Amino acid sequence: MSVPKILTCIESLKVSLTNNSLDWVQEFGNDGLKQVLNLISKSLENGSDGQWEKIKLGCVKCLKSIMNNKTGLLNLLDKQDALTLIARCINPNSPLVMLETLKLLAAVCLVTPTGHQKALAAITQAGQIKSRGRFQPIIQGLIMKN
Q1: In this structure, which long-range contacts are made by residues 113-116, counting pairs with CB atoms below 8 Å and at least 24 apart in sequence?
Q2: Residue 115 binned pLDDT confidence (cut-offs 50, 70, 90)
Q3: What is the DSSP letter of 112?
Q4: In Å, how far from its chain's centre is CA 40?
Q5: How far apart are alpha carbons 106 and 13 in whole angstroms?
Q6: Distant-in-sequence, close-in-space partners of 63: CB < 8 Å, separation ≥ 6
Q7: What is the b/e burial string over 17-33, where b = at least 16 CB atoms within 10 angstroms of the residue's CB?
Q8: Best CA proximity match to 83, nearest among 52, 55, 111
């Protein structure tokens, strides 16, 4: 599928996840979640290309909609590397993606009893994957002037 078609599908999916019933979102379930996570992984592989950044942002917003209910949140937390994949999206060169990503990780911290440990572990693993300090991109984002 071409990149513009993927972007159009992700934008439509975000609208559907936001506007459709909880039953529809639950039916989207694990298989749909896996596809969104796969697209995030693919967007990370394709670097900072503008279209892929839009896809990544759309996917993160889809995850936000998925996590907006207990079933979706539990499905996400059951995916072994999902939080690490999300944490890898923290990039000060993509401020909108970074902001939405940090909102997701903050929600994980607040909603589940061990959420802060899971979020920190994900941020740590993302830092190790990129060979940098775990909070380095967050600090860079705070000191950037735009």
Answers
A1: none
A2: confident
A3: S
A4: 7
A5: 23
A6: 33, 36, 76, 86, 104
A7: beeeeeeebeebeeebb
A8: 111
Residue whose tokens read 């000060």? 92
Separation CA 80–CA 36 (nearest Å): 14
> Is residue 67 a contact partner of residue 93, using CB atoms and an 8 Å limit?
no
Give the model's pLDDT for residue 42. 93
Give me the count of residues in the chain.
146
Residue reference for tokens 């992984």 = 41
Residues 126, 84 contacting (CB under 8 angstroms): yes
- CA dist., res. 50 & res. 5, Å (int): 14
pTM, 2 dp? 0.88
Integer Cα distance of 14 and 100 in angstroms: 14
Q: Are 62 and 36 in contact (CB under 8 A)?
A: yes
CB 60 within 8 A of CB 104: yes
Written as six digits, the tokens of 32 are 């749909």
Cα–Cα distance for residue pair 67/51, rounded to 1 Å: 24
Separation CA 32–CA 60 (nearest Å): 13
